[in-house]
Amino acid sequence: MSASKPIAGGLPLEGLRVLEIGHYIAAPFATRVLADLGAEVIKVEPPVSGDPVRQWGLARDGHAYWWSVHGRNKKCVTLNLKSKEGRALLEELVARSDALVENLRPGQLRRLGFDDDRLLELRPNMVICHVSGYGLTGPLADRACFGAIGEALGGLRYLSNHTPGTTDLPPVRVGVSIGDSIAGLYAVIAVLAGLWSRAPHGRVADVALTEAVLSIMEGVLPEYGGTGTVREPSGGRISTAAPTNAFPTADGGWVLIAANSDALFRILCKVMERPELADDPQYRDNPARCRNVDALEAEIAAWTRRHDAKSLESRLAEADIPSSRVYTAADIAEDLQFNTRKMVQWVDDPRLGKVLHPGSVPMFGASSRQVRWAGPDVGEHNREVYCDLLGLDEDHLNRLSSNGVV
């Protein structure tokens, strides 16, 4: 069994116990953030198979690298919630937990006998956070939904597409399950807000993937409401400020340059050895640069193509122009800033060996980013939770295991 590593000075959520009944991404991502901050997270999974994410992505000997991060710092137990004995154990876990985060299909927990009233009867001051596709109410509440659907309905997938007329390919995905992660972060906020409120009869939060995505869409909705204008995809650009885009380099890379204030643009023109561009009526101020962005970006791209990515990045950094190579995973792993702040760190995983992990966010001193243990095996903490926390004896636990309850 993995042993917890003490963090110097402690972590802000030490002493908080969170029960997770979740799978895939949104709820488990939320509890990973809470666990990274010191909460004792007990993750309930089906016996034998566990969370399907354990099998996602690249793996070694059946152990997925992503799981090393996705399940880290959690205590994983197995429990068959369809069995009477399994539901009895869940009651005991609920009674000893401060918060519950779940993302089963809406109503599934209720059908198992654990509606909000029952949960709050077992733990009167508990914070309950339900994460679902469309929320617990409304005409779509019962429909199946994943993060990608939330991104489509919330408007993000439309805006992350190429600019209109440039391709007939499908709208571009961000590259990670961003809708799930956004909903997970809102679930973290819900848990912490509910705990802060100190309500004597608990708090119940309802987080919808679709609404989580919609909430970050900046001025898209008010602009439409006020003017009838539908914001269109802008590719790598920012439609309201120029120049901001990724530009090609001599070695086939890309460097993102954000010189979109008048002062920064003037500095960029000097770095490009084209100071006259700053006084050109086409580019004199931001509105002009936005109107003539195609011509402007062509000028910048002609310059960037003469330099390799690293030297270009160095030139721009010396001029203090916001810029960066477009990083790959290899670039991230080698980055001095990330490594200095322990945002990139090697973690010992008993199943995979050394695994490269991202650190936790936010940081409460460098030691707070220390990963206490990598994602555990299915049921790895059964004995610790059921015997040490709930008081079952070994024989009872072994019988429950033989009967498929845990």
TrEMBL record:
Coiled-coil intervals, chain numbering: none
UniProtKB keywords: Transferase
InterPro entries: CoA-transferase_III_domain, CoA-Trfase_fam_III, CoA-Trfase_III_dom3_sf, CoA-Trfase_III_dom_1_sf
Species whose genome carries this gene: Microvirga arsenatis
Keyword Transferase: yes
Name of protein: CoA transferase
One GO molecular-function entry: transferase activity
Gene3D superfamilies: Crotonobetainyl-coa:carnitine coa-transferase, domain 1, formyl-coa transferase, domain 3
SUPFAM superfamilies: CoA-transferase family III (CaiB/BaiF)
Superkingdom to which the source organism belongs: Bacteria
